[in-house]
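Hi Y.,

Following your request, here is the sequence exactly as I used it, all 251 residues.
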Amino acid sequence: MLKEERQRYIVDRLHREGKILGTDLVMQLKVSEDTIRRDLNELAEAGILQRVHGGALPRALSSSYEERLQTSTGAKVTIARAAADLIHDGQVIIMDSGTTVHEIANQIPPNRQATVITNSIPVAATLALHPHIEVQVLGGKLKKDAQAMIGVPVIEALKQIRADLCFLGICSLHPEIGISMPDMEEVYTKRTMIEQAAEIVAVSEASKLGTAAPYIVASITALTYLVTDTSTDDKSLAPYRQLGIQVIRAD
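Below is the corresponding structure, written out as tokens. Let me know if you'd prefer a different format.
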């Protein structure tokens, strides 16, 4: 079997099964461990999968904020509306960056009264028009592709906060790997947000579930809620429920 055929087989199996083991591929393709290792490494370098010990997992597609905004889906709006329902009057809320978290800002009812602390420029701009939301913007280095502030000043400011709720922008979620990101710079900010909030809400479309990225933010058990859309099947959600996460399927 040619290399291109092997790698196509690997990618197809990964999409069907959600994970692959190197030992299984050795037996199925009747090639050496070194051959499979090279194939997996090449696919990882191409951004097609995420290497993990013993095999690989799907990798969420990475794109700029503008690209993600242009591909905004109805599912994202539905998820954001359900997430916004978790906000109660008088709460202090941390809102991370990301297009789905930004959509939550759009969906907060006009009569809701709360304080929002955010590192997201679009979230702050949207909530500047809200009549009853007090907005505190975290200052730092602007990460342009995320439209978000990052760095030591952001982390130090977050450490002075005790929030009721944190809406976390998600790249990849996996019940075993946890919450992960393709960019180390954002990891430290997200970790601090998790540490400083009583409850953590992950908002994620189905395509991000069961995927992994190179840098770990936290264990999946750091989450209180997972808000996703109805296209996510029960089998995919079962591991999260078993870990005690409250799953909300928005419709």
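The chain is about 40% helix and 25% strand.

Thanks again,
Q.
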